[in-house]
């Protein structure tokens, strides 16, 4: 993680700097906005800015936005001035920390920004196989393609590979190719020289140079324009890049990890993705299965998110009820882990009593998750089937078998032949069972077809 302290706060933030460095972060100082922008343009980058509340935070936010630099701001001040804190938040700061800081508070902020809470939680064998492959290739410099539906955890897995590589102490830089307009993505990736285009007020180092020595994650690479794909291919092959408006190539040393929720082989056939680039990126493919194909992970992740959001919201940690577990296990989870996380966050907030019940497992609109997307007739049938299933719990197999046979016979109006066919047993077996029940004093539906009798001698 990269921390940039802006303002004359070095003395007050000695503790914060020490904590950050102990956790593997690099710390840079800038005395004002101009110096901060030079640091950010120069390739050092920052995952978090700690900014003196006495500075014009709104101006800094506007400067960052104008140059498409994305980094959260936490304001800091030596007083507990509520008005200053509110003004800082309104100006665009994510949080306000009074100084001198509490070490635990600084550590919590750093952990949140570094996404330390985004743990790789799994139990299912299908996911375990993916993780095993990730562990095997993590130490190499091979390019990796991570594929899977939206919300399956592709970026989390990319960070997992990085932290287990020889580059773990170097930067992990991520760029979402789908979130940046096409005409700006080239500059974001490769940087630009001053005056290269309107708005290029100074030289800007791109993500390739920022990631030198570390890992560059190209998120949703399938959305990249074909023209830019050719420049990316050259950068990967030759390990050099050209800044926009630049006159000489710049050497880079990075590992590439790319992600996609689309079928890239199909994109190649459609002409929207270069085949040679796919071959370069797809040295190793980590394909994350959707959550519905990892049933053992659903409850494991649900428990993880319950604990996480109970702590975050200061509410009691409640267990998940049996009925709620059933709802979670049978849902299709079209949004995968991301949808499950949001669902459990709501459940933590909505739960009443000692457990998180099924009534707390709801959609954003407030409908029960297991009924919200189901037509009324299907929902009714589902509830009826669940009631039947619950009625079986706690009973012996012999009791359930007896009731099934007698109810089937009743349905067939006593016709033994029809009942045996429905039950999938021989007429001899059926008659022996009925004789056994009759000996126990249980009423038997009389025979309803010619030639059939209420009781027949037992046959061995």
Automatic annotation (TrEMBL):
InterPro entries: AAA+_ATPase, AAA_lid_NorR, CheY-like_superfamily, Homeodomain-like_sf, HTH_Fis, P-loop_NTPase, Sig_transdc_resp-reg_receiver, Sigma_54_int
SUPFAM superfamilies, alphabetized: CheY-like (SSF52172), Homeodomain-like (SSF46689), P-loop containing nucleoside triphosphate hydrolases (SSF52540)
UniProt-listed SMART domains: AAA, REC
Domain spans labelled Sigma-54 factor interaction: 120-349
GO function term, MF aspect, one: ATP binding
Keywords, ordered alphabetically: Activator, ATP-binding, DNA-binding, Nucleotide-binding, Phosphoprotein, Transcription, Transcription regulation, Two-component regulatory system
TM spans (from-to): none
GO BP annotations listed: phosphorelay signal transduction system; regulation of DNA-templated transcription
Response regulatory domain location: 2-114
Protein name: Two component Fis family sigma54 specific transcriptional regulator
Modified-residue entries (4-aspartylphosphate), positions: 52
């Amino acid at each position: 993680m990269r921390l940039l302290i802006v303002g004359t706060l070095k003395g007050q933030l000695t503790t914060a700097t020490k904590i950050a460095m102990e956790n593997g972060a690099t710390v840079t100082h800038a005395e004002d906005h101009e110096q901060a922008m030079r640091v950010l343009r120069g390739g050092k980058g920052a995952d978090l800015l700690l900014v003196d509340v006495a500075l014009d935070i709104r101006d800094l936010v506007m400067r960052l936005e104008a140059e498409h630099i994305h980094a959260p701001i936490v304001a800091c001040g030596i007083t507990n001035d509520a008005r200053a804190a509110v003004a800082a938040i309104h100006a665009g700061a994510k949080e306000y920390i009074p100084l001198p800081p509490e070490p635990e508070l600084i550590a919590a902020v750093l952990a949140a920004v570094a996404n330390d809470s985004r743990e790789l939680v799994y139990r299912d064998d299908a996911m375990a196989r993916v993780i095993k492959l990730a562990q095997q290739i993590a130490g190499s410099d091979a390019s990796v393609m991570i594929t899977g539906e939206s919300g399956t955890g592709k970026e989390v897995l990319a960070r997992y590979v990085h932290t287990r590589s020889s580059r773990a102490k170097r930067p992990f830089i991520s760029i979402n190719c789908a979130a940046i307009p096409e005409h700006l993505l080239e500059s974001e990736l490769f940087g630009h020289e001053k005056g290269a285009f309107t708005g290029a007020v100074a030289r800007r180092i791109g993500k390739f140079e920022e990631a030198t020595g570390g890992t560059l994650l190209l998120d949703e690479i399938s959305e990249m324009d074909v023209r830019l794909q050719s420049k990316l291919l050259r950068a990967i092959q030759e390990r050099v890049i050209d800044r926009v408006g630049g006159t000489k190539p710049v050497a880079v040393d990075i590992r590439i990890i790319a992600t996609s929720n689309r079928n890239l082989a199909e994109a190649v056939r459609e002409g929207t993705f270069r085949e040679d680039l796919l071959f370069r990126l797809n040295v190793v493919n980590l394909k994350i299965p959707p959550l519905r194909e990892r049933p053992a992970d659903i409850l494991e992740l649900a428990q993880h998110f319950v604990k996480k959001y109970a702590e975050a919201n200061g509410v009691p940690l409640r267990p998940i009820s049996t009925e709620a577990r059933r709802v979670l296990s049978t849902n299709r989870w079209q949004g995968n882990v991301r949808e499950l996380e949001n669902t459990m966050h709501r459940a933590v907030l909505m739960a009443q009593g000692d457990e998180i019940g099924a009534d707390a497992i709801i959609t954003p609109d407030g409908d029960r998750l297991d009924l919200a997307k189901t037509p009324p007739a299907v929902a009714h049938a589902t509830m009826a089937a669940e009631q039947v299933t619950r009625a079986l719990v706690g009973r012996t197999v012999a009791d359930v078998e007896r009731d099934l046979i007698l109810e089937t016979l009743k349905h067939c109006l006593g016709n033994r032949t029809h009942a045996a066919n429905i039950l999938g047993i021989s007429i001899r077996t059926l008659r022996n069972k009925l004789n056994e029940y009759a000996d126990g004093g249980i009423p038997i539906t009389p025979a309803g077809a010619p030639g059939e009798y209420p009781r027949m001698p037992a046959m061995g």
